[in-house]
UniProtKB/TrEMBL annotation:
This is Alpha 1,4-glycosyltransferase domain-containing protein. InterPro entries: A1-4-GlycosylTfrase_dom, GlycoTrfase_DXD_sugar-bd_CS, Nucleotide-diphossugar_trans, Put_A1-4-GlycosylTfrase_plant. Coiled coil: none annotated. Residues 297-420 form the Alpha 1,4-glycosyltransferase domain. The chain crosses the membrane at residues 7-33. The keyword Lipid biosynthesis does not apply. The keyword Transferase does not apply. Keywords: Membrane, Transmembrane, Transmembrane helix.
């Protein structure tokens, strides 16, 4: 028999050297342990990589699903560069991080209940909501106006009062209801009292949110949100509740919705079932984006119902504007031209004559004669062509109205109290 001695290395160990034997034994054990550790690390690394790849595929799939359902006009691509609209990667990263924290703590993907918001609370005051609305609008109102206020009552300042004043300057017999729990208070009454003292019909009413969404597609959305089945997202919930509240109020009662940073310049009596374009294509003159800061609709109008449905079905609390301006743009793009939807889209000059990037120019005083001529021409243009001016409060809230500016002229011409014109 032939003995094969492959991979055999003779080791000479002195029979009487226990120390050398122990050293060799320890060395062999160390090599075996190191090999085991390396193998385990490699397996864990491979598993982790596979899990990451799986999550990445899921993220890409969700992203494609969202983008295939959302038709974004060309102009939105420009806004993306300014980090105003898109921020998809940033939102996805923050959302993934948020989901990871939730999974770590064992609360699941959609089990983070939103904080109890004041506007969602029900009490004896909100139970009277519907009756108060009917009673208020049964006062021979020329037009019904709605505003919403979801901030503290002390934040309803001179800019917001100016917006209310302008409503009554153009509609002395109009009725303005401010849907707000905080303003429906003693302090809120004192804030509005100067207008009441002059005989104008204005009231703040704590809304009954469950009643407003009842029998609409948003009813189930609200239940899911309150129970934690719907993810509220990273955008402040109050902002999205305001987006929804204006829709359900118009659907239930009809009328005109206005943001509180809008100066009315002429009567809305000739408007019916109207929404305004924020931007248009300079070549085709077709609208590229709509906005929901001004809405004029009859009670139970089918387009408003579509808005509510879209809000509930595609709600995303992690994308700015997704449930507001972009939502109405998506819906109108789909239904425009279909039978049964009768509405009018007005050009930007109607409600959004100045883009948010340029709104600061309206607050500046003229520096020379050329500046004075520009201001005069702008004021005359706005008087002829606009129903009002949206002030883009997020951009202009801290700007001071300088004497001789376009804004000073507009406020002076459209106020009824006409105090503190030069204050923000």
């Amino acid at each position: 028999m032939t003995t094969t001695k492959i991979f055999v290395c003779p080791v000479v160990i002195p029979a009487k050297s226990p120390v050398a034997f122990m050293i060799l034994f320890a060395l062999l054990m160390f090599l075996m342990l190191t090999d085991s550790i390396v193998s385990n690390i490699s397996l864990e690394s491979a598993a982790f990589t596979q899990k990451q790849d799986s999550q990445s595929l899921q993220t890409l799939t969700v992203t494609r699903d969202i983008k295939s359902d959302v038709v974004l006009p060309l102009s939105l691509t420009v806004s993306t560069k300014n980090n105003i609209v898109d921020g998809d990667s940033e939102h996805q990263n923050s959302l993934a991080s948020s989901l990871g924290v939730r999974e770590k703590h064992g609360i699941g993907k959609f089990r983070r209940k939103p904080p109890e918001h004041e506007i969602l609370k029900s009490d004896e005051l909100t139970k009277k909501f519907h009756g108060r609305v009917l009673e208020f609008f049964n006062r021979g109102c020329e037009l019904h106006f709605f505003m919403t206020w979801i901030s503290k009552v002390g934040s309803f300042g001179r800019r917001e009062i100016m917006a209310a004043e302008s409503v009554f300057k153009a509609h002395p017999n109009g009725c303005l209801m401010i849907l707000s729990r905080t303003m429906d208070s003693v302090q809120g009454y004192r804030t509005l009292k100067p207008l009441l003292d002059r005989g104008f019909k204005v009231i703040a009413v704590a809304p009954d949110f469950p009643f407003l969404v009842k029998n609409t597609p948003a009813e189930a959305w609200l239940d899911d949100m309150k129970s934690g089945k719907k993810d509220p997202g990273v955008i402040p919930l109050a902002q999205n509740l305001s987006n929804l509240m204006r829709l359900v109020a118009l659907y239930k009662y009809g009328g005109v919705y206005l943001d509180t940073d809008f100066i009315v310049m002429r009567s809305f009596k000739g408007l019916k079932n109207t929404i305004g374009a924020q931007s248009i294509d300079v070549v085709s003159k077709n609208w590229t984006r709509l906005n929901n800061a001004v809405l004029v609709f009859d009670m139970k109008h089918p387009l408003v119902l579509k808005f509510i449905e879209e809000f509930a079905l595609t709600f995303d609390g992690n994308k700015w504007g997704h449930n507001g301006p972009y939502m109405v743009s998506r819906v109108v793009r789909r239904v425009e031209g279909r039978p049964g939807y009768n509405f009018t889209i007005l050009p930007p000059m109607a409600f959004y004559p100045v883009d948010w990037i340029k709104i600061g120019g309206l607050f500046k005083m003229p520096k020379d004669r050329a500046g004075s001529r520009w201001i005069e021409a702008k004021v005359q243009q706005l008087k002829r062509q606009t129903y009002g001016v949206h002030l883009w409060n997020k951009q202009s809230s801290k700007l001071v109205v300088e004497e001789g500016s376009v804004m000073e002229r507009l406020m002076a011409q459209n106020c009824v109290l006409c105090t503190h014109i030069y204050s923000s």
